[in-house]
Design brief:
Helix content is about 40%, strand content about 30%. By secondary structure, it is an alpha/beta fold. It comes from Candidatus Zambryskibacteria bacterium RIFCSPLOWO2_12_FULL_39_23.
Length: about 400
């Protein structure tokens, strides 16, 4: 099912938005209306446990529990907040790391004779590359059907060297384009579909699944970026995702195994605290409310956290630099309580291979304030930047249907 067929011609539609990450699952009930910005009716968040860095099976098992919990919470509590009678019809889901794999492939076909660009021609390219991707991910001679393609698109198409927004029906000797594919494990998708059906009775064909790097790229490209080359840095609970965009094409995505929860674990370990007390201290540190002794202790801990995080960053930047010159514009999404910490990390002067990147970097923090005029809320509804990005993305699709 194409994403545009997902939306039928209606003046408004009530949907559930879900952002499945590695540190938490965020959810919202949102009303989309023709020629209006989206309206948040109700929101909620359930965190993953922090004490130990979870294995993949542990994370998957906890995700199943939390997904049912957030859906139950949204439906039982959110619908009572509505000032109008309307049924929830759609569920819109995005996955962050480690739930997906993403690949961008440069396609260049040159023939002596002219050939026609048709839908079947493009579908054939997608199907062939899908099989190659499946084989690569399975690591076996025969593809393992344990995952599903959730996003596939051919972008930045050039016909005989000229960029075309629509290449269908054109003849060419030289076809140049980028194919973007992303996959999510079939077992993960089954968990999502089963939880949604159980809690809302919404079937799988009314559920649309995407990945956060692609969603955030489209929002940044369409709203924030006057530059076609940039990096999106998404710092979540367990990881930092870096997405490289060149000429408005997602070229590569890299995950660094360090995020907000690593800071909390280090505070808990070094100060001999529970994860809950460590997280509370982190909040107080961000608000400038800690006593001087604990403040200095956390600052010392952050020095060690920064050293490890910067090693991962250097490795990622080196991998990006093998592609092309590194863009100077960086869009940052991160939880508000640790945003100043990571901004400080990035502002440090270094002598390693990130020195030039740091020196030239134009860091733009995408937070709920910068997004606030792209959505509205009912009274007392809290919206974080991640859910706002999802709403902006899906509203574009709804308006374009």
């Amino acid at each position: 099912m194409s994403i545009l067929s997902f939306f039928r011609k209606k003046e408004d539609e009530l949907s559930i938005l879900l952002d499945i990450g590695n540190g938490s699952i965020n959810g919202a009930i949102v009303l989309f209306t023709k020629n209006k910005i989206p309206r948040f009716i109700f929101t909620g968040e359930v965190p993953f446990s922090i004490p130990l860095q979870p294995s993949a099976p542990e994370l998957s098992a906890e995700m199943k529990i939390l997904l049912n919990k957030i859906l139950d919470y949204l439906i039982k509590n959110g619908l009572s907040k509505m000032t109008f009678a309307k049924k929830i019809e759609k569920v819109l889901v995005t996955f962050s790391s480690p739930w997906f794999a993403l690949k961008t492939k440069h396609i260049n076909l040159v023939q002596q004779n002219y050939f026609l660009i048709t839908k079947d021609f493009l579908d054939d390219i997608i199907e062939k590359e899908k099989k190659v991707f499946e084989k690569l991910l399975s690591g076996e001679d025969s593809p393992n059907k344990s995952f599903e393609i959730v996003e596939k698109s051919i972008v930045h198409t050039k016909i005989n060297g000229y960029e075309m927004s629509n290449s269908l029906g054109r003849k060419t000797k030289n076809f140049d384009a980028y194919l973007c594919l992303s996959v999510v494990g079939k077992s993960t998708i089954d968990i999502v579909h089963n939880a949604i059906l159980k809690n809302s009775h919404i079937p799988a064909d009314m559920v649309s699944i995407h990945t956060f790097p692609v969603v955030s790229f489209i929002v940044v490209r369409d709203i924030f970026s006057a530059n076609s080359d940039f990096i999106i840095m998404d710092i979540t609970g367990e990881v930092t995702d870096l997405t490289l965009v060149e000429d408005n094409v997602v070229i590569k995505s890299i995950s660094m195994p360090s995020g907000r929860n690593f800071i909390i674990r280090q505070i808990a370990k070094k100060l001999d605290l529970s994860a809950e007390i460590a997280e509370s201290n982190l909040h107080l540190y961000a608000e400038g409310k800690l006593d001087e002794k604990t403040k200095i202790q956390i600052q010392t801990i952050l020095l060690d956290v920064e050293k490890e995080w910067s090693i991962y960053l250097e490795s990622a930047i080196q991998e990006f630099s093998s592609q092309k010159n590194i863009p100077s514009t960086v869009y940052l999404t991160v939880d508000s309580d640790v945003a100043p910490i990571y901004k400080d990390f990035l502002s440090l002067v270094k002598t390693d291979s990130t020195a030039e990147f740091r020196k030239n970097m134009n860091l733009i923090h995408i937070n709920k304030e910068t997004l606030s005029h792209f959505y509205e809320t009912q009274m007392e509804v809290e919206v974080n930047e991640f859910m706002a990005i999802l709403a902006v993305f899906y509203n574009k699709l709804f308006q374009d249907k």
